[in-house]
Design goal:
327 residues, mainly alpha, two-stranded antiparallel sheet, 72% helix, globular, Cobalamin_biosynth_CobD/CbiB
Length: 327
């Protein structure tokens, strides 16, 4: 199998070890290991400032944005291939494990959402607005306490998909190159994929490719959250499945509606909805049919759901490894 280290653990055992280590030590690792998504984000921001000029034609900006994405993908794929080549040499599997830990940010993302809950409880809306920055594309200073709580619950759903399920899926399917390409595209989409005049053409390739790569992982993330719901007090698995079937396609993103709808349905919340960006009201559909007045306690329930779904994901990796070993 791909990435098999001579005399070392196979790829699925490496994956199981990596997700377990991330679940326990991810906060500390986030401070010491480079984040491929963050590196890609910085590269794309620099390219955006240099290459994306408003006065250029639409086709020119589209081609320049596509070139930036192509460079990001090639660099990530080449880095992944180099890691796998070294991984086949003696104790090189340690480098492959390290690369996996660089790409997995599940625990770190969970901790950032928890910080929003603590900020809301200690400092109210203003503290929550500061803490939620970087976790949402909404204009944070237009959010009240309930808006901050809803944004944090949505951030938990997105992070479960993008920082845990998607990199695990990419590695299981295409090894280290696939995982690094995914994490790099995660950063590229964060930098260039937002809708609007500036990135409508320059960021189109990043947004489209991100949607394609995340199509299956996002749906898997929603399924895992729904399966985890019965283990969380008042959460309801049936509500998660109903919300996904009814509302997932209402979300502006082709993919994010699935984990967000699962989270909303499981917790009995309404997420998304209209919000203000400065003096402009942005109209978005509501996801879920529960309470819109989310609280810090709902963030705690979302974090618990995230944690249980992560444990189920770890169990699935273990089952897959056992199944492959038995063949």
């Amino acid at each position: 199998m791909f990435g098999m280290a001579f005399g070392g653990p196979g790829p699925l055992l490496l994956l199981l070890l990596a997700v377990t280590v991330d679940a326990v030590f991810g906060d500390w690792l986030d401070r010491v290991l480079p984040d491929p998504a963050r590196l890609a984000f910085r590269f794309c921001n620099a390219a955006d400032a240099r290459l994306n000029r408003i006065q250029r034609g639409a086709t020119d900006r589209l081609l320049r944005g596509a070139l930036v994405v192509l460079v990001v993908i090639l660099l990530a794929a080449l880095a992944g291939l180099a890691v796998e080549w070294v991984g086949g040499q003696g104790r090189g599997w340690l480098l492959e494990l390290l690369a996996l830990l660089c790409g997995l940010r599940g625990r770190a993302a969970w901790t950032k959402v928890r910080a929003v809950r603590r900020a809301l409880e200690k400092g109210g809306a203003s503290a929550g607005q500061e803490a939620i920055q970087g976790l949402t594309r909404r204009h944070v200073y237009g959010l009240d306490e309930h808006g901050v709580a809803r944004a944090a619950v949505e951030a938990a759903a997105r992070a479960f998909d993008r920082k845990l399920v998607a990199p695990v899926f990419a590695y299981a399917l295409l090894g280290v190159p696939g995982m690094l390409v995914w994490t790099a595209m995660d950063g590229a989409d964060a930098a260039l994929g937002s809708p609007g005049i500036r990135h409508g053409r320059f960021g189109l390739t990043a947004a489209t490719l991100d949607d394609a790569l995340n199509a299956l992982p996002a749906r898997l993330a929603g399924l895992l959250l729904a399966v985890a719901a019965p283990f969380i007090g008042t959460a309801k698995g049936g509500g998660a499945f109903r919300a996904m079937a009814r509302d997932a396609r209402k979300h502006p993103s082709l993919n994010m509606g699935w984990p967000i709808a699962a989270m909303a349905g499981a917790l009995g919340l309404s997420l998304g909805g209209p919000h203000r960006d400065g003096g402009v009201v942005i109209t978005e559909a509501w996801i879920g049919d529960g309470r819109a007045r989310a609280t810090s306690a709902d963030i705690g329930r979302a974090l618990a759901l995230y944690a249980v779904a992560a444990l189920i994901l770890i169990g699935l990796v273990a089952l897959l490894m056992w199944g492959v070993a038995g063949v």
